[in-house]
Amino acid sequence: MLIRILHWSVFLLFIGVILSGYRQADSGWSGVGFFDRDMVHIVHETSGILIVILITCWALIRASKIMQFRLLTVYQKLLVIYHCVLAGLGLLIGMLGWMASSAGGYGQKLFGVLPMPNIFPKLGADWAVLLNSTHADLMTWFFIIAGVHIVSALFHLLVLRDGVFYSIWFSGKER
Ligand code: HEM
Ligand code: HEM
Questions:
Q1: Tens digit of pLDDT for each residue in 75-93?
Q2: Which of 3, 24, 5, 12 lies closest to 132, judged by CA?
Q3: What does the alpha-carbon distance between residue 53 and residue 58 come to, in Å, rounded to a whole number?
Q4: What is the distance in A from the centroid of ligand 1 to the CA of 32?
Q5: Mean pLDDT across the chain, nearest whole number?
């Protein structure tokens, strides 16, 4: 059950972090309204940091089953590797954003109030720009890998109807 809660929390946080990420990077936006620039920044920073924390917990829970890996079939092994690449890329993108704000010395807060530690030395604005552009560039890969994941999950749900989708949903049998 914990894995399912983690999976869908991370999914919802990704929606928040992606929408707020592109919104705050949109130079044509006036930045005013209920979700003004400050609010959008808080949503982005908070959901990004929570994604980093939750994916790390998820990996630690799954790592306890590493001994079972060699018992899996080749197909199951490839599937585990694919899921690791997907979650690992999400984690990397989040860490790069966090590293960029640490490098620039801008600081980062959860919910706009709770200061979070720096995870990278304060090396200046040039480093912040470099880390941040890598942060943004990796999104293309994330969309491709997550897109394949989502399409195949829906294929299992709507066409194959084999219970794979429900293994991560709240009603089915856990795998
Ligand atoms: C997995 C988590 C994250 C995802 C998927 C994500 C995604 C994005 C996206 C899509 C953009 C817009 C890119 C563009 O310029 O086209 C962006 C920008 C940015 N992100 Fe993230 N982000 C994440 C976590 C973080 C974290 C944890 C921080 C800081 C603590 C952060 C700080 C920033 C900053 C400063 C920008 C630039 C905004 C601007 O240009 O005004 N991100 N992010
Ligand atoms: C509409 C969105 C999504 C759907 C329908 C979906 C569906 C699924 C399904 C059906 C499984 C079980 C597959 C199996 O056990 O073979 C699964 C597992 C997984 N999904 Fe997603 N997913 C979605 C979004 C995401 C996102 C955004 C991530 C990014 C981190 C993600 C990461 C994972 C991982 C790492 C697993 C393996 C879970 C484990 O066993 O620990 N998913 N997903």
A1: 999 999 999 999 999 999 9
A2: 24
A3: 9
A4: 19
A5: 95
40: phi then psi, degrees, rounded to nearest 5? -65, -40
CA R_g for the chain: 18
116 bridge partner residues: 108
pTM (whole model) above 0.90: yes
User: Contact, 103 vs 92, CB < 8 A?
Assistant: no
The domain segmentation of the chain, as residue ranges, is 2-25+35-167
Dist. CA 14 → ligand 2 center (Å): 12
The 10 Å Cβ neighbour count of residue 91 is 19
CA 43/CA 8 separation, integer angstroms: 18
Q: Which ligand is nearest the CA of 120, by number?
A: 1
